[in-house]
Amino acid sequence: MAKVKDNRRGIATKEGLGTIAQRLVRLRKDAGLSQAQMAERLGISQPVVSDYERGAARLHGELILKAAEILNVSADELLGRETGKPKARATGKVQQLFEEVSNLPRRQQDKVVEFVSAFVRQQRQAEKQKA
Q: What does the pLDDT look like over 47-62, one tens digit per residue?
């Protein structure tokens, strides 16, 4: 009897898990986060993030939503159901500054990211309070 190829590309297939894992890696790197930083924000250990990124473990619903929020994408985009809108990229002075920051030692980069993240959070909270 001939083996029938499974053409499903959903999240439950091995192929689907691989693509989710690949997207998770790409989106995490695009966000400028290490696996350890991602793990801390998700409230899990770094080896678990590694398992998700290798497709060795499946993200569950709540973690999908939390990861999407951290990565500033929709859950649908993380799952591959939509490509998302093109994101605004830093330009001019901001781009130049972050390129310079990328040449700093990792610990100093982490301090810059920590400061900028706190500033952005503060600005978002201020905007929400105005609304």
A: 999 999 998 998 888 9
